[in-house]
Amino acid sequence: MDLWATIPQFLISGITFGAIYALVALGFVTIARASQIINFAQGEFVMLGGMLTFFFLKGGRLPYPLSALFALLVVVLIGFLLHLLVIYPLRKASLPILLIATLGASLFLSSSSALLFGTLPKALPPFMGKTPLEIGKFYVSPQSLYVLGITFLVLISLYLLSHRTHLGKAMEASSTDPLGADLCGISRNLMTFLAFGVSAGIGSIAGIFITPIFYVSYHSGILMGLKGFISAVLGGWGKYGGAILGGFVLGVVESLSVAFIPSGYKDGVAFVILLLILYFRPKGILGSPFIDSRRW
Amino acid sequence: MVDPVHKEFRKREILYSVALWLLSLILPDPQLHYRKEYRLRKRDLFYFLVILLLPLIWSDLHVHHLMILAGIHAILALGLSLFLGYAGQISLGHAAFFGIGTYTTAILTTQHGLPPLAAFWASGIAASLFAYLIGKPLLKLKGFFLALATLGFGEIFLVIVRESAGLTGGVIGISGIPWFSFAGFVFDTYLKQYYLIWIVLAGLVLFSKNLIRSKMGRAFLAVATSEDAASSVGIHVSQIKVRVFVIGAFFAGLAGSLFACVMSIANPETFSLNLSVLIVMMVILGGMGNLYGPIAGAVILTCLIDALAKYQEYSLPLYGVILILLLVFFPDGIGTRLRVRLIYLISYWGRKKRRERVDV
After folding, report:
1. Is the domain of B192 the same as that of B311?
2. B350 and B304 co-located in one domain
3. Residues on chain B touching A275 (C-beta within 8 angstroms)
4. Which residues in chain A are closer than 8 Å to B159, comparing Cβ atoms?
5. What's the CATH code of the domain at B66?
6. From B333, which residue of chain A is nearest by alpha-carbon distance?
7. Is B311 in the same domain as B346?
C-alpha cells in the first residue's frame, strides 16, 4: 500500500511543523503568563524575524550569525514599542478593543514589511548543508533538527526563567494574582513590557530558524500566529508544556490530514481542531491554570 | 429688581443650553435607552431627512457608490452592535454570515432563477440558520476564546467556499448576479440602489430600536453586565445569547444579499478576516450600546478607506496606524468621547465667565 508507506514521511514533516507551531505558541504563553493579554501580532514577529535576517544578509551583506542577531534585536525592540505604543495606553480598555488593537498592529507590521522588503516570498540559506539526512528509508532535513533543538532550548530557558528567577516569578504573579502582585510592589506594567520583549524574541528566533525551510512572505505572519495560538489552546492555555504538546499534535494531525483529504482543506483542519477542543475541553489537553478558576 | 450681572448670567445660561441642545441633536446620548421610553423623536426624523436629501444635494456618482458601500457596512455593524454593544459578546466571524448571505443570493438567482426579493429573504434566513447551528455550541465560550472560535468559523467558511468550486465558483467566485428588482421596478442606478439600501437600513434601525426596549433587549443588557445576576433574575442566558447571535446574523445575511445584488459579484476575498475586523472596529468607534453610533462608524471608516486608497501602497500601513490611534484616543467611541469633551468645554466656559463675574 503506497499511502501507508508515505505516512512516516508525513509524520516527520508533521513533527517539524509541530516544533514551529510550538515555538510560536511559547510566545503567546509567555505574554499570557505575565498579563492575560493575547497578542495577535505574535505571528508578525515570526515573519519579521525571517524578513529582517534576509534583509541584513542580502541587503547589508553581513555574516549570517551577525544578521540573525541584529534581526533578533530589532524584533525585540519592535515588541517593546508595541507594548509602549499600543498595549500600555489601552491597559484599562475592554477586551474587544485590545483584540482589535493587536490585530491592527499586526496589519500595520505586515503591510509595512511588504512596503519595505517587497511582496516576493523570501528564503534563507540553510545553516548547514542542504542534503537531507537519510534515516532508514526516510529523509530528514538537517534544518528540521535545528528547529527541534531550538524549540527545546527555548522551552528549557523559559522554564528556568519562570521557576528559578525572581523576575519570572514576579511576571507570573502579576498575571495570576494582580492585587497580590501590586501589594508586593511588583510593577505589573513593567512585567508586561518585559514579557512582550521576551515573546518578540521567541517569535523572531522562530522566524530565523524556519525561514530556511519555508518561504516567508509579508502575509504569512497572521496564519502562523493563529496556528500558534491554536496549539497553545490545544495543549492547555498558559502552560509551557501544553504549548509544546499542542504544537506537535497540531503539526502531526495537519500533516497526516494531507494524506486523506484534499490539500486545499489543510488550513481548515487547524480551525476544526480548535472548534472541537473549545467545545469538548476548553482547558486543553494538559489542563490550564487560568481557565478553570475563571469560568471562561 | 434684576441686577445687570444676574441678567447677563441668564443670557449665558440660555446660550449654553441652546449649544447643548444642538450638540445632542448631532451626537446622541449613548445611554439614552437606559433612561427614556422609545418614541420617534425629532432627531430620528432629522437623520432620516439628511439621508434622503444627501444624494440629491451631493449628486456625485462616486459619493453615491461610497454611500452604498457605507450603507451595507452599516447594516452589518448594526447587527454586530446588538451582539457586541448590547449583549457584550465578541464575534470575529461576522463576515462569514455576510458571505453566506451573498452566496445564497448568488446561487439562488443565477443557478435557480429565483427573483431577487425571494433570494433576499432566503439569504437572511440561511445566515440565521447557520448562526443557530454554530451559536448553540460556541456561545458557551467567553471573552478571547469566543473571539477565537468565531474567527475559526470564519476561516473554515472561507476554506469551504474556496474548495467547493462546483457550487460557489471557487476562488473566482460568481458573477452576473441580476440587479435587485421589486414588482417590476429594477434598481439599476447608483441613486436607486442608495435609496434601497438606506431605506432597508432605516427599517432595521426601527426594528432594533423596538427590540432593545423590549423584554429581550433588556435581557441583552443584563447579560452584558453580569451573566450570574441575569440568570438569577430568570433570564435564560445561553438562549438570549443564541437569539442575539441569530438576529445579528440575519442582518448580516440581508446585507450580503444586498451586496450581491448591487455589486453583481460574489468573491471569497471579500469575506476575509479584514472585513470582520472592520465591522468590529465600526461598532467600537461608534460607541457600544448605541444604535446610531455603528452607522456613523461605518460611514466614517468607509470614507477613510476610500480616502486612503489614493496613497496606493502606503494605504494599508496608514490604515493600521489610524486604526490604532483611533482606538487609543477614542476607546469608547468617537461620539461618546467627543460629546463628553464638548459638554465639559461648554460648561467650562460657562463656569469660567461666572467665576470672573463673582470675583468682581
Report:
1. yes
2. no
3. 138, 149, 152-153, 156
4. 264-265, 267-268, 271
5. 1.10.3470
6. A97
7. no
Reported ipTM: the value is 0.83
What residue in B sits closest to A118 (Cα-Cα)?
Answer: B313
User: Do residue B277 and residue A93 have CB atoms under 8 angstroms apart?
Assistant: no
User: Which residues from chain A sit within 8 angstroms of residue B84, using beta carbons?
Assistant: 96
State the SS3 of chain B: CCCHHHHHHHHHHHHHHHHHHHHHHHCCCCCHHHHCCCCCCHHHHHHHHHHHHHHHHCCCHHHHHHHHHHHHHHHHHHHHHHHHHHCCCCCCCHHHHHHHHHHHHHHHHHHCCCCHHHHHHHHHHHHHHHHHHHHHHHCCCCHHHHHHHHHHHHHHHHHHHHHCHHHHCCCCCEECCCCCEECCEECCCHHHHHHHHHHHHHHHHHHHHHHHCCHHHHHHHHHHHCHHHHHHCCCCHHHHHHHHHHHHHHHHHHHHHHHHHHHCEECHHHHCHHHHHHHHHHHHHHCCCCCHHHHHHHHHHHHHHHHHHHHHHHHHHHHHHHHHHHHHHCCCCHHHHHHHHHHHHHHHHHHHHHHHHHHC
CA distance A53 to chain B (A): 21
Please give the tally of structural domains in chain A.
1
Give the pLDDT of chain B (360 residues) as one tens digit per residue: 566 667 766 777 777 777 766 766 666 555 555 545 556 667 778 888 888 888 888 888 888 889 999 999 999 999 999 898 888 888 888 899 999 999 998 888 888 888 888 888 999 999 999 999 988 888 887 777 888 888 888 888 888 888 887 777 777 778 777 787 777 777 778 888 888 899 899 999 988 888 888 888 888 888 888 888 888 998 888 889 999 999 999 999 999 999 988 888 888 888 888 888 889 988 888 877 778 888 888 998 999 888 888 887 788 888 888 888 888 888 777 777 777 777 777 777 766 666 666 655
Mutate to test the interface with B, among A275, A277, A280 (most CBs of B within 10 A): A275
Domain that includes residue B354, residue range: 335-360
d(CA A151, CA A16): 10
- Answer whether A81 touches B (CB < 8 Å): no
* SS3 state at A133: strand
pTM of the model: 0.84
Contacts A226 to B, Cβ<8 Å? 151, 155
**Residues near A166 by beta carbon (within 8 Å), at least 6 away in sequence:** none
Give the residue on B whose Cα is nearest the Cα of A277. B149
Contact between B145 and A274 using a beta-carbon 8 Å cutoff: no
A108 contacts on B by Cβ (under 8 Å): 316-317, 320-321, 323-324
A132/chain B closest Cα distance in angstroms = 33
Q: Of the candidates B277, B328, B331, which has its C-beta nearest A103's C-beta?
A: B277
Q: How many domains does chain B have?
A: 2
Q: Which residues in chain B have Cβ-Cβ distances shorter than 8 Å to A100?
A: 277, 280-281, 284, 323, 327
